[in-house]
Amino acid sequence: MSQIFHHSTNTLSRFSIFGGAFLAAGGLWLMLEITRSPYVTNAGVAKEQPVPFSHAHHVADVGIDCRYCHTSVEKSATAGIPPTRTCMNCHTQIWAQSPMLEPVRESLRTDKSIEWVKVNDLPDFVYFNHSAHVNKGVGCTTCHGRVDKMPLMWQEKSLQMEWCLDCHRAPEKYVRPKGEVFNVAWEAPKNQLEEGRKLVKEYKIRTRTSCSTCHR
Amino acid sequence: MRRLGLLCVLVVLGAACRQDMHDQPRYKALAKSDFYPDDRSARPLVAGTVARGWLRDDDALYKGRNGQELVTTFPFPITSEVMARGQQRFQIYCTPCHGRLGNGEGMVVQRGFKKPTSFHIDRLRDAPPGYFFDVMTNGFGAMSDYASQVPVEDRWAIVAYVKALQLSQHASVDDVPETKRASLDAHESPSEQDHE
User: Fold this and answer.
1) Is residue B153 a part of any domain in this protein?
2) What is the CA radius of gyration of chain A?
3) Total domain count for chain B?
4) Which one of A31, A71, A93 has the shortest CB-CB distance to B114?
């Protein structure tokens, strides 16, 4: 009986088994990449807003501190979205006739809130507290990115659990001096780990990785 | 192999199918409500009501007044911590218009807002602390009030800092204690120090 397959197909079959393993691993890798990609997380996708509010302009050009508008960030779980009145502190006189700002004036006239689109939307099963972070040396830009360079706001980080844990496991990688928390231009020093360890000790920061820290 | 590919696609698509746990039927802060006619889940206080413990009957503290008269003293002692807090809060809420020196040349003014009066004119240097507190609390001219943005204690801390700022712009070398005069030559600017 003659052989159906030529002897050389042995090599081919060996290769295809080997290749199959690679293909399976590749598929798995692709899956993990997709779940971490902006397609799923929305990171880096600028959101349309009822008024094209520019953090780049207000923070970088005018130099307004984060807390001027986000007044509750140091003492509350939420940073707070400013009421229309805060916009009107300046815009009664500046750009007071601009059609772009008509929704703001309308909001003030009619006492209806502007419906800003939430950009950093954590899942509802996660508890997050802004004050706990900014009062322990976690800077705004560590999570929100360089908002002073964002014309329209986007979510900078994935907001996935592995991202939270990265810092919760090793806060020394990100913590900064308390005086620099609201400084959007702050950059980590070359010896961040060393400085970070000092700050972790000084601020009594604990690595908090128990489930109920965030899922409560 | 086709089955594995299909599985990948299903897993990826399936990940976005149910978001019940992500979006639970409860309100997050300032979220929209379909229940109330004004669409707000954050409910404004009913007019005329006072929350327990929030009765503001101390006029000197909450209005900067004794009867009709503006107070000439602070309602609590001004320590260096209060002063540092005042400087920090001043630089957040006041400098956009008043500038870091309080001369009324902040960035928002440079962009076209009406220039506020400099803190360093005689009328304002003679004004009592209660005056500044009153302006922050009720607004003045083109300036809207900051009662909702700056809590009462912080407003007083800012008043203390404004008073210090006024002193600083009218100070001479004689006002500096002799032991500290040497540091003047070192070009140290106290306003650049961070007090946090």
Assistant:
1) yes
2) 25
3) 1
4) A93
